[in-house]
């Protein structure tokens, strides 16, 4: 079976929804950011601080290539995975790409409740996060849409509703 690949901006729920699908279908979930954090025993935030974004992107591409060799898994990606066309090519070779779509307000609120630090977004309260998320989303919107096989709305829906919709396409 093809992989279920979740793409979309930070705070849209790629990790959480991936977990739901994985437990419901009893298939493995991989999260590209978690794999990088484990590999270097360091948080994404510290990796950015110590090695910089370019280095992170190279590692991210390596991990994407590795997990794209698998089948029948759920892949939760980092929000920047679409920047590199080769990543999308690799992910598409074995997977169906679902873009999770949410309002900037939803993303901001989810990020405010998240423990994971996003070095490119910061955490200085609602207004700052909203502004950064919005700018980043508009920069990448076309890439997400171009890459996605399906768009899945997350606004005002439960994790179960979103997960079940994805499973129904699969
Ligand atoms: C990034 C998103 C993050 C993480 C890194 C870079 C981005 O993942 O990969 O901080 O460029 O959008 P999330 O999508 O889980 O926030």
Automatic annotation (TrEMBL):
Binding annotation for Mg(2+): 15
EC code: 2.7.1.71
Metabolic or biological pathway: Metabolic intermediate biosynthesis; chorismate biosynthesis; chorismate from D-erythrose 4-phosphate and phosphoenolpyruvate: step 5/7
Catalytic activity: shikimate + ATP = 3-phosphoshikimate + ADP + H(+)
GO molecular function: ATP binding; magnesium ion binding; shikimate kinase activity
Binding site for ATP: 11-16, 118, 157
CDD domains: SK
Cofactor: binding details: Binds 1 Mg(2+) ion per subunit.
CC cofactor: Mg(2+)
Function description: Catalyzes the specific phosphorylation of the 3-hydroxyl group of shikimic acid using ATP as a cosubstrate.
PANTHER family in the record: SHIKIMATE KINASE, SHIKIMATE KINASE 1, CHLOROPLASTIC
Assembly behavior: Monomer.
Protein name: Shikimate kinase
Source species: Anaerosalibacter bizertensis
């Amino acid at each position: 079976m093809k992989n279920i690949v979740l793409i979309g901006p930070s705070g849209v729920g790629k990790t959480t929804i991936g977990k739901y699908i994985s437990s419901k279908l009893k298939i493995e979930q991989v999260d590209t950011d978690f794999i990088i954090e484990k590999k270097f025993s360091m948080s994404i935030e510290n990796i950015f601080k110590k090695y910089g974004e370019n280095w992170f992107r190279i590692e991210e591409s390596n991990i994407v290539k590795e997990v794209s060799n698998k089948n029948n898994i759920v892949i939760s990606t980092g929000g920047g995975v679409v920047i590199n066309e080769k990543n999308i090519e690799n992910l598409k070779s074995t997977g169906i790409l679902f873009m999770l779509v949410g309002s900037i307000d939803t993303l901001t609120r989810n990020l405010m409740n998240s423990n994971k630090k996003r070095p490119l977004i910061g955490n200085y309260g609602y207004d700052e996060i909203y502004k950064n998320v919005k700018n980043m989303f508009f920069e990448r919107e076309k890439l997400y849409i171009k890459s996605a096989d399906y768009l899945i709305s997350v606004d005002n829906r439960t994790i179960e509703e979103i997960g079940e919709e994805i499973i129904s396409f699969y």
